[in-house]
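Final report, Chapter 2: Outcomes

The project's central promise was a pipeline that accepts a single protein chain and returns its three-dimensional structure in a standardized token representation, suitable for archiving and comparison. That pipeline is now operational. To close this chapter, we reproduce one record exactly as it appears in the project archive, with the input sequence first and the structure output second.
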Amino acid sequence: MFGDALHIIHPFVGQGFNMTIRDLAVLKNVLEKKLGLGLDIGSSDVLLEFSQTSQPRNFAFSLSVDVLKNYFSIENKYFKEFRNNLLKNINKSNYIKNIFFKIANKGFEF
């Protein structure tokens, strides 16, 4: 429910759950920090800090998922040929594949 309430994301790449797990980690860190300082975890500061930490990263990630979805929806035969060649070349590069896997697993880090 936490993820569905926070993220409306196209299931194209199945990343909504990963975003939720990352958000829970951010929330855990915020709560631990506040508790460690003896502060009230029910204050609006907790939600503000959580939002300011997770929202920019989630927005960038959601935007990139939308771009990818639209990219793979283009039906032009010349573009499809270009896209297939690009993907074949990406598939040959472990360096580029590792970047994609890192982003899929950890999201964007800023």
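Archive annotation: Helices lie at 2-6, 16-36, 44-73, 77-92, 94-106.
This record, like all others produced under the grant, will remain available to the consortium after the project formally closes.
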